[in-house]
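Action item from last meeting closed. Structure (199 res):
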């Protein structure tokens, strides 16, 4: 198998469906080669999703995008840093999940070439740690502008410790991302099958 799959654990809880993924990288003085995605290997690991859209963005140091999700067409995402380094975060919004409201963060580094799979039913965001970064992700559903949702990036109820990752950087957010609502522990988001049950 060309990939190593590791389930993500937060506060002693395994977050179902969330994986850190490390491809095998073969390199020498000329450069390197690695597989970015293999349906066969992912299916063997139990990740039998179908991807329908690939996205890519470029951001400068300190840019923080998130926390985002889609309500009508929830997306699973396989994310990686093509260049640079980002701190990537997923928040479990599946009501009834043991890890509901918990987050998990991982540094994605283009030199390491690690990846992060975030299933449907999660909010997602990332923070650029390098001078610039190109961020790419495969999605299990198409972008739906009418179903955009979000959570406050620094909500104390979630407690993402962005600053400890890069205390010298001041986060830069879009006006839209500054206005997302706070997380409601008693709110309705997604059910355990990642279907939207909110208002």
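Sequence:
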């Amino acid at each position: 198998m060309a990939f190593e799959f590791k389930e993500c654990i937060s506060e002693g809880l395994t977050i179902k469906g969330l994986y850190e993924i490390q491809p095998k990288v073969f390199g020498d003085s000329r450069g390197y080669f690695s597989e970015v995605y293999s349906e066969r290997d992912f299916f063997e690991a139990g990740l039998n999703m179908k991807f329908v859209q690939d996205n890519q963005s470029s951001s400068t140091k300190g840019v923080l995008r998130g926390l985002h999700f889609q309500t009508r067409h929830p997306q699973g995402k396989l994310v990686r840093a093509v260049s640079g380094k980002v701190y990537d975060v997923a928040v479990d919004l599946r009501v009834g999940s043991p890890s509901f409201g918990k987050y998990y963060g991982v540094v994605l580094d283009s030199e390491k070439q690690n990846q992060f799979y975030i299933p449907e039913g999660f909010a997602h965001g990332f923070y650029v740690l390098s001078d610039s970064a190109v961020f790419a992700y495969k999605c299990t559903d198409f972008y739906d502008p009418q179903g955009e949702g979000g959570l406050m990036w620094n909500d104390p109820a979630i407690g993402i410790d962005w600053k400890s990752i890069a205390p010298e950087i001041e986060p830069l957010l879009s006006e839209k991302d500054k206005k997302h609502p706070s997380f409601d522990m008693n709110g309705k988001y997604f059910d355990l099958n990642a279907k939207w049950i909110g208002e």
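Note appended to the action item: The two ends are 43 Å apart (CA to CA).
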